[in-house]
């Protein structure tokens, strides 16, 4: 059985390698095939997977900020309901002015994912139609899911403390000062090591 | 004479669903001509918060992503961590997890009974089923200490073993719920008002359902046998004997019938799990959570929740915090692209009714 499944996975990889420029490919485990491609190969690979290899179900789309590389990694996850295989297609774009092709003509629900990624990471999708705002409203700052967006700093700058709580101190520091007592190092105290 | 188009804002607070979400409707007379989902009323930035917390701290956040059914979130989060790390989970813990998930499924369906019938104006049904749901919440309180948020399934297993006498208590509750289902049938499914409201309303095209990303009871209500528990078995579902009900129709009525069958199936699963549950350890201890690092890698895990396929995409960069956790609930598709499409041509009075039948849960759209 497992040999049979693995051969199906290998078959998909072989077909893709023949037709497209695949930068990296792997079978991570049973039921999981992964390829890495350039942004220009995204539409051909996804269309081929859907039309020719029965990966008709669009399971997920996600974005990861690799700030140290100056790139975003966008992941498309497809599902083949017959062979029961997850197919991962990964691509990378620049953090500064990343543009990806729009795929909502292949799966219309991709529109929602793309709108969210545009709003939360700042990646543009060519020809994406849909309200600019999805979750955020009147947002003028950096896209908030970027790694360099500091939530705590943003809150400090944007909001103010209730009168009497201007210091906004950690309650443990506050107790320490008032009681003049050294609080235990909880990490050490409850360590299992 | 041209009919005037009026804009109607349904929500963000309304009786149709759990949580806040607005649907902007363009209506002509009583008929919806265009619908647009607006979210953002519940955005709490959970995914961003998780990037600042260590692996164990994040697990207390995930259950808050969906109030009616938090357990698939806990299970998904834990399984994603375990898959990246390669951590083994004791067999007993897997059985306990399945029991928890199935109990959560029954509780969710009982709450859904209330929502679905309430949006048709049948309020007695909701009072009965939500009352009975409390017996399941009592079980959760015994098991985990919490009624709604359990924080029970965590990486490595479950937080504690079954308390003394718990098995008998669960079996008694299952007998009671099973008996009550006949009463529910009389009250809801034999009710002509419900039948007239539900039949032929909110029809999903069977040929397009898989392509549109429909999952769970709405997909099985189109006659497509698809269930993560069977297609991509996790925990110990492959060791249990059960079938996935599927019926042709694609309307609200069929989706309701599917859920009705699934409650019975879940009761059967809970009994099987309790019968087959082995002894032994229930937790494979993790190291000191403050120092716990997970090798670099990524995972996409899926669970069949009561509303459909729930997925977590998780990335680790080798550190003590997740690099990225991306939650995909069924409502992300059901509540936006599918709903917008289904509502066109429907009556205003059916909007909440359809939303409920799709299991729309706004918190998981915006996390």
Strands, helices and their partners?
The complex is a heterodimer of chains A (193) and B (367).
Chain A: H1 2-19, E1 24-29, E2 32-36, H2 42-52, E3 57-66, E4 71-80, E5 85-94, E6 99-101, H3 110-121, E7 124-126, H4 151-158, H5 171-179, H6 186-189
Parallel strand pairs in A: 2-5, 6-7
Antiparallel strand pairs in A: 1-2, 3-4, 4-5
Chain B: E1 5-10, E2 22-28, E3 31-38, H1 46-50, H2 59-62, H3 71-85, H4 91-118, H5 123-144, E4 153-154, E5 157-158, H6 166-189, H7 192-198, H8 206-212, H9 216-220, H10 228-231, H11 252-276, E6 297-305, E7 308-316, E8 322-328, H12 331-343, H13 351-357, H14 363-366
Antiparallel strand pairs in B: 1-2, 2-3, 4-5, 6-7, 7-8
Helix pairs in contact in B: 4-5, 4-11, 5-6, 6-11
Describe this structure in words.
Chain A has a domain of 135 residues: NADH:ubiquinone oxidoreductase Nqo5 subunit (Beta Polymerase, domain 2, 2-Layer Sandwich). Helix content of chain A is 32%, strand content 24%. Chain A contains six helices and seven strands. The mean pLDDT of chain A is 83. Chain B has a single domain, classed as Cytochrome-c3 Hydrogenase, chain B. In chain B, a hairpin with a 2-residue loop joins strand 2 and strand 3. Chain B is globular and about 70 Å long. The mean pLDDT of chain B is 89. At the A-B interface, strand 3 of A face helix 1, helix 8, strand 6, strand 7 and strand 8 of B.
């Amino acid at each position: 059985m497992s040999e049979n499944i693995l051969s199906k996975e290998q078959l998909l990889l072989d077909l893709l390698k023949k037709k497209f420029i695949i930068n990296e490919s792997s079978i991570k485990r049973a039921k999981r095939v992964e390829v890495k491609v350039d942004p220009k190969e995204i539409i051909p690979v996804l269309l081929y997977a859907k039309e020719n290899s029965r990966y008709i179900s669009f399971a997920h789309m996600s974005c990861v900020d690799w700030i140290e590389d100056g790139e975003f990694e966008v992941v498309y996850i497809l599902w083949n309901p017959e062979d029961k295989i997850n197919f991962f297609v990964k691509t990378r774009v620049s953090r500064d002015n990343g543009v990806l092709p729009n795929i909502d003509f292949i799966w219309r629900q991709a529109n929602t994912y793309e709108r969210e990624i545009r709003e939360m990471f700042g990646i543009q999708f060519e020809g994406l139609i849909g309200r600019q705002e999805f979750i955020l409203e009147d947002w003028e700052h950096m896209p908030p899911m970027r790694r360099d967006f500091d939530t705590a700093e943003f809150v400090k700058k944007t909001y103010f403390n209730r009168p009497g709580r201007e210091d906004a101190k950690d309650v443990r520091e506050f107790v320490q000062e008032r009681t003049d007592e050294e609080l235990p190092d909880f990490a050490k105290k409850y360590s299992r090591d | 004479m041209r009919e005037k188009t009026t804009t109607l804002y349904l929500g963000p607070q309304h009786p149709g669903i759990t949580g806040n979400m607005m649907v902007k409707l363009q209506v002509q007379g009583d008929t919806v001509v265009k619908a647009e989902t607006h979210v953002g009323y519940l955005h709490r930035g959970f995914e961003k918060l998780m990037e600042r917390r260590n692996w164990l701290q994040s697990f207390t956040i995930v259950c808050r992503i969906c109030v009616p059914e938090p357990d698939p979130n806990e299970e998904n989060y834990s399984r994603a961590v375990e898959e990246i790390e390669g951590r083994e989970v004791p067999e007993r813990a897997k059985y306990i997890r399945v029991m928890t998930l199935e109990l959560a499924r029954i509780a969710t369906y009982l709450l859904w009974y209330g929502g679905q019938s309430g949006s048709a104006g049948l309020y007695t049904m909701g009072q009965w089923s939500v009352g009975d749901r409390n017996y399941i919440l009592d079980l959760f309180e015994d098991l985990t200490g919490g009624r709604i948020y359990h924080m029970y399934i965590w990486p490595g297993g479950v937080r504690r073993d079954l308390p003394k006498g718990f098995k008998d208590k669960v079996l008694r509750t299952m007998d009671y719920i099973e008996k009550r289902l006949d009463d529910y049938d009389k009250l809801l499914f034999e009710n002509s008002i419900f039948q007239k409201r539900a039949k032929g309303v909110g029809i999903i095209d069977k040929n397009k359902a898989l392509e549109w990303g429909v999952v769970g009871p709405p997909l099985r209500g189109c006659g497509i046998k698809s269930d993560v528990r069977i297609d991509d078995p996790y925990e110990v579902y492959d060791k249990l004997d059960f079938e996935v009900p599927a019926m042709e129709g694609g309307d609200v009525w069929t989706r309701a019938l599917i859920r009705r069958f699934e409650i019975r199936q879940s009761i059967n699963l809970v009994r099987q799990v309790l019968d087959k549950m082995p002894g032994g350890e229930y937790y494979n201890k993790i190291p000191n959570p403050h120092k716990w690092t997970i090798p670099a890698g990524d995972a996409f895990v899926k669970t069949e929740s009561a509303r459909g396929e729930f997925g977590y995409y998780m990335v680790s960069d080798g550190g003590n915090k997740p690099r990225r956790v991306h939650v995909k609930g069924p409502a992300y598709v059901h509540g936006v692209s599918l709903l917008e499409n289904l509502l066109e041509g429907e009556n205003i009075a059916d909007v909440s009714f359809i939303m409920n039948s799709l299991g729309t849960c706004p918190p998981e759209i915006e996390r």
